[in-house]
Amino acid sequence: MINQRMQHLKSIIDKVKRNATSLSEVEAYEQQEAMIIREFLSHKLSSEQYEAKLNRLTHEPQRVICKTVEELKFVLDYLGVSEKEQQDLFEHEKAHFNEAKANGLQARFCLTFYRTASGFGLIPGTQVHATLLNTLSDDERRMGVRTSITAPKNMSEADMQMLL
Predict the structure, then answer these.
(1) Which of 19, 53, 81, 125 sees the fewest Cβ atoms within 10 Å?
(2) Are 38 and 162 in contact (CB under 8 A)?
(3) Cβ neighbour number for residue 147 with a 10 Å cutoff
(4) How many domains does the chain have?
(5) What are 22-62's pLDDT values in tens digits?
């Protein structure tokens, strides 16, 4: 029997698929997001300013947020993603997720949906938030964000964009 959280995820997935925007709109949002991360990493923003700026971004793309690997696996299975694609995605995104957690930061898996001619496409990611533990200094938070971005063996183009 599927628990209540999984039922909730199914309803979110169905809604997100219906409301997905174009890939160009998603990419524009992700460029703004990467710019804010770069500003934080280059000491132009404090942790609080970083989170506030991320929260003020408009036109957030349609995303499904997963708090655990089990939730992510459930969503990918529900969407029919192959085992091979799942393994590649897990290896990459778990590296980000685990490094963020090891540095005392909040991390969540996210799947960003965009509209295509045949339905929808997915962009996997890991969201890292720098203000979860107030005991960390801004520099410790920056280091945690930076090391979580660089954690995978093979960084993606999106990962590299956050560091430019």
Answers:
(1) 19
(2) yes
(3) 15
(4) 1
(5) 999 999 999 999 999 999 999 999 988 988 898 888 777 89
